[in-house]
């Protein structure tokens, strides 16, 4: 099975459901702003994980589509607000929402996606107790994402961040939404609490690996592939695990927290981080988390959907952006 084809097959259903469940209505500019990043594409990994988890335990795509849309809207809500806080003006190769509609407009667009996610999740046809569990999972996840973002911003004012503190931050900021997607899919598919929790752990672990590798890509991928400024985390003074490891080795990076850098300065910093072994250290740790996540899928019967979930885990550390 070609993973990208299988993702596209399911994401096309998600896209159609977004059109139906989040139409552009009055006030039009608000909904255009809310739909802007959603319509710009994205990999749709989180809704795909949710759908595959449901299919792997015996459900079907159509019955969980509203939940898949809800997870994708939460993801995009976080991107809009992240770009405001990080002052990133480019997202997915386009001007960020706050660049086109202003900060106030972008905040409202993000808030709209957040609230609509729960409204849309409530449209799932399932046992009330399972829908309530899913609401609980998603609401707690949104709180943890905020906690993770706060830690991420807080770290910029710290002189030193430990590896454990970094992992706590990325778990809350990034991996909890993958965990929620997998758990919600399993719950709506009729899985036991034990199986749903194993799927949640799968999502949590591959989500951590995803973010670690994302930090690597921020440094090694060209801007035209990334869709944003290369090395932006470094210039913004973000304590990624690469930086934490490098600083622990006594490495000095002149562009860290500088706000801007030339291409030559960025390339010099990447060479330094490669030579000191920090990039390879984080790559290998990301692979370790991915493998731990894949092992959690042992609770599932062998089926095409399980194989796709395993392939998605591998894709987390094989992608180019």
Automatic annotation (TrEMBL):
Keyword entries, A-Z: Magnesium, Metal-binding, Transferase
InterPro entries hit by this protein: Isoprenoid_synthase_dom_sf, Polyprenyl_synt, Polyprenyl_synt_CS
GO biological process terms on file: isoprenoid biosynthetic process
Highest taxon of source: Archaea
EC numbers, comma separated: 2.5.1.1, 2.5.1.10, 2.5.1.29
Keyword Ribonucleoprotein set for record: no
Pfam families per record: polyprenyl_synt
GO molecular function, one term: geranylgeranyl diphosphate synthase activity
Cofactor: Mg(2+)
Family: Belongs to the FPP/GGPP synthase family.
Record protein name field: Geranylfarnesyl diphosphate synthase
Organism: Methanosarcina lacustris Z-7289
């Amino acid at each position: 099975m070609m993973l990208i084809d299988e993702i596209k097959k399911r994401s096309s259903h998600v896209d159609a459901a977004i059109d139906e469940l989040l139409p552009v209505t009055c006030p039009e500019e608000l909904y255009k702003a809310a739909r802007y990043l959603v319509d710009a594409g994205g990999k749709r990994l989180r809704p795909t994980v949710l759908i595959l988890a449901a299919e792997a335990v015996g459900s079907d795509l159509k019955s969980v589509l509203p939940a898949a849309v809800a997870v994708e809207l939460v993801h995009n809500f976080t991107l809009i607000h992240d770009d405001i806080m990080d002052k990133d003006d480019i997202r997915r190769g386009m001007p960020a929402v706050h660049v086109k509609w202003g900060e106030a407009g972008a905040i409202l667009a993000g808030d709209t996606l957040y609230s609509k996610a729960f409204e849309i999740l409530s449209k799932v046809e399932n046992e009330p107790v399972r829908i309530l569990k899913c609401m609980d999972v998603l609401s707690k996840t949104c709180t943890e994402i905020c906690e993770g973002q706060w830690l991420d911003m807080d770290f910029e004012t710290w002189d030193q961040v430990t590896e454990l503190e970094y992992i706590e931050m990325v778990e809350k900021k990034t991996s909890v939404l993958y965990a929620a997607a997998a758990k919600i899919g399993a719950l709506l598919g009729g899985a036991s609490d034990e199986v749903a929790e194993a799927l949640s752990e799968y999502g949590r672990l591959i989500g951590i690996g995803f973010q670690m590798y994302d930090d690597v890509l921020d440094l090694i991928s060209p801007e035209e592939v990334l869709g944003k400024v290369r090395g932006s985390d470094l210039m913004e003074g973000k304590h990624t695990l690469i930086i934490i490891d490098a600083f622990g080795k006594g490495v000095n990076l002149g562009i860290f927290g500088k706000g801007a850098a030339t291409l030559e300065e960025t390339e010099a910093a990447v060479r330094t981080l490669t030579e000191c072994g920090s990039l390879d250290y984080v790559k290998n740790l990301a692979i370790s988390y991915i493998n731990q996540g894949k092992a959690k899928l042992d609770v599932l019967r062998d089926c095409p959907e399980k194989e796709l979930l395993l392939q998605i885990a591998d894709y987390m550390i094989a992608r180019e952006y």
